[in-house]
Every structure is written in structure tokens, then in C-alpha cells.
Design goal:
alpha/beta; seven-stranded mixed sheet; 14 strands; 36% helix; 19% strand; globular
């Protein structure tokens, strides 16, 4: 959107592995290889806040474009003044959560599933979701020679990025609502769910190993550029066509010690989203320039032009959809019902929004007291 009560699964970089840990139940998807320090830094100028530096984590991924653009254009650094922004990129949610838990990063852009994971693993003691970043950007793309309608998926091999990740849970929930049966752990059933790293999904599609994929951008548009067809946009399954794909999280320790830095960062994120939404072409080019800076290769125009319009950049964390995604994971048997009360602290964001003359956003009853 099991065996002890908290047995879950996590797949490593090379292959899936079974781990008896709840944290592995839900993982995020990303592009790139390992955590990578961004050597290109914008010079910090102006008055230093209560921290010398703020360490940011995000993925080199279009659904993290708030971070890509805010970093590339220096918007985040400008709001931080003399406090230096130091960025690190990650391949997947678990490694970013581990970095946050270890104190290696202070703030991160991350998907809903690892946000839930990180909160549950520490029994609500380490992270808070402090803002939204993006909605949408996830599609079901298929081989049009083999699949022409949604009913044709039965008996086919469809990839998701990772066992229990956000897209995997969404696809399992969609299968269940169709009345079809799939074993969540093995992926076997009326549809074969093939967990495949996003980096190799295009090759798997090209070789015929899979018939389609339920994946985020830009993987979906990479497949389309290879001849696949979009059969379903996940946004169409959600009220108002909105669902959280990227949150902003913070270490509770950092939030407590440096509320001024967190507020300044959120002000930068809000201004970045405002700039993105007012300058779509420039923002798309900026995000692609940052991707090239991080990976050495920009996305082709055909891919990014197709991918970009499906992502909505929003400050609203769309909290109600986070709860729904957790419920979908429980329904699929990948997670025991989590207690999410307190996962959000939107007071700093709402302070920033109020100062900007913008309406406040809701935590859907899951806010910190």
C-alpha cells in the first residue's frame, strides 16, 4: 500500500535472504549501489544555526527529486545559512534507516515502508516523519504482446523491486482485491511475483524472464522505452489519486537538540517543492543534472520526459495513506499490525507553512503528543 509473530523477510543487494527480523519486512527501492558521499557541496554562508552540519540521506531517484533539486540548486543550503549541508546517497531503505539509527545521518528522504520499519524496530524511539515530499510515480508496465488487459496478468511473471517493499505490498494488495491467491513469501500463485532489483529489471524484461513489472520511476519509463506499455498507474487506485511515495524523516535526537536546523531544512524543502512546481522543465533538468553528478550518467530525454509528469511534489505527508499501506502489509501477511501513533511530528512543518501563508497538513491522528 509472519514462524514467530515478527518474522519477516529482507533481500540483500545480490539476492533475497530470509531474516527473522521485523525490520526486513518492508524495504524501500533505490537506484545506485552503496551509500555514497556527495563530494560536491554548496558553500555554507550566513549565520550558523545550532549545529555545525546537518547530514542528509536520500536516493538518486526521481521520487526523491525534492532532495535532488534542493541540493543541486542550493535551496536547502541557503535556508541552513552557515550550517553545512552534507549529503549521502543510499541504494535502499534499510541502509538509510541503519545510518539514521547509528547517527550517521540526521535527516532523510525515504519511502513509507522503511519509515514504518524504522519506527517499529526502535519501538517509536528514534525517528519521526516531519514532512512529505512526493506522491505517485509508480506504474504497472507490461509486455503488450503477452498482456493486453489487467485480467491477462493471471499466470504471468510480474516483477516488484523487493520482497515486502512499498511496490511489492501494493501489488500483493491489488492481487488480493482481484480475488487471486499468491503466497506472499514465495511469490507463487495465480500471478508469479518475481522480486527483481530495479537496476536489472530492464534486462530481465528484455530477456523475457518477466512479463511486466510494478515499479517506481524511472524504472517504469525505462521499460516503456524498451517497448513495454503502461497498463495501470497506481495513483488511479488511491483517493484523489494521491499516495505517499517519499517522506522526510529525522532522528528524534537531532530534532530535540536542533529544532532550529530542522525548521530551516523544512523551509528549504517547502521552497524547493514550490520552485519545482513553478518551474517544471528547469526542475526536471536540475534533477537530471544531479543524477548525472551522482552516478556519472543522466537519464535519457525519452525516459525522464515520460517519468516526470506522474510524480507530484507535495509538502503534505499524506498520512492517511501511510496507515493504509501498513494495513496492506498486514493483510498480505508481511507485517504484524504496527502501532504507529507518534510516528509523525508535523509541528515544525506546520509552523513553516503557516509563516508562508499556506494551510497546515494533517497527521491523520498519528502525531506525537
Amino acid at each position: 500500500m509472519p514462524a514467530t509473530t515478527r518474522t519477516t523477510l529482507r533481500r540483500g543487494l545480490a539476492a533475497a535472504a530470509v531474516l527473522p527480523l521485523l525490520i526486513g519486512a518492508l524495504a524501500s527501492c533505490g537506484y545506485g549501489s552503496e551509500a555514497k558521499n556527495d563530494e560536491k557541496k554548496v558553500a555554507a554562508e550566513g549565520e550558523k544555526l545550532s549545529a555545525d552540519t546537518v547530514r542528509l540521506g536520500y536516493f538518486p531517484n526521481l521520487t526523491h527529486a525534492t532532495a535532488l533539486v534542493g541540493d543541486q540548486e542550493g535551496i536547502l543550503q541557503k535556508e541552513l545559512g552557515g550550517t553545512q549541508l552534507v549529503s549521502t546517497t543510499f541504494n535502499a531503505g534499510p541502509s538509510e534507516i541503519e545510518a539514521l539509527n547509528a547517527g550517521s545521518i540526521d535527516i532523510g528522504f525515504i519511502g513509507p515502508s522503511p519509515s514504518i520499519n524504522g519506527y517499529v524496530k526502535t519501538k517509536g524511539t528514534n525517528l519521526r516523519i516531519i514532512g512529505g515530499s512526493a506522491s505517485g510515480g509508480v506504474k504497472l508496465v507490461v509486455n503488450p504482446a503477452k498482456i493486453k488487459t489487467l485480467d491477462d496478468l493471471k499466470g504471468k511473471r510480474i516483477a516488484t523491486p523487493q520482497l515486502g517493499n512499498t511496490q511489492d505490498v501494493a501489488f500483493l494488495n491489488w492481487i488480493s482485491e482481484k480475488g487471486w491467491k499468491v503466497d506472499a513469501q514465495s511469490g507463487k500463485g495465480d500471478v508469479s511475483v518475481v522480486r527483481t532489483d530495479n537496476k536489472v529489471t530492464p534486462n530481465a524484461y528484455g530477456s523475457g524472464a518477466i512479463d511486466g513489472a510494478w515499479v517506481p520511476e524511472p524504472t517504469a519509463s525505462k521499460l516503456v522505452s524498451d517497448g513495454a506499455k503502461v497498463l495501470l498507474d497506481e495513483s488511479d487506485l488511491w483517493p484523489d489519486k494521491k499516495f505517499v511515495i517519499t517522506n522526510i524523516i529525522v532522528s528524534q535526537k537531532f530534532l530535540s537538540a536542533h529544532p532550529d536546523v530542522v525548521e530551516a531544512f523544512l523551509r528549504g524543502a517547502v521552497k524547493t517543492n514550490e520552485w519545482i512546481n513553478a518551474n517544471q522543465d528547469k526542475a526536471k533538468a536540475s534533477a537530471n543534472a544531479k543524477l548525472k553528478d551522482l552516478s556519472g550518467k543522466a537519464l535519457g530525454a525519452k525516459v525522464i520526459d515520460a517519468a516526470w509528469p506522474s510524480i507530484q511534489f507535495t509538502d503534505d505527508p499524506l498520512a492517511a495513506t501511510l496507515q493504509a499501506q501498513a494495513d496492506h502489509a498486514v493483510k498480505a501477511g508481511l507485517l504484524k499490525q504496527p502501532e504507529l501513533s507518534g510516528i509523525y511530528d508535523l509541528k515544525p512543518l506546520n509552523k513553516v507553512l503557516k509563516a508562508a501563508g499556506r494551510p497546515e497538513v494533517s497527521d491523520a491522528g498519528l502525531g506525537a503528543k
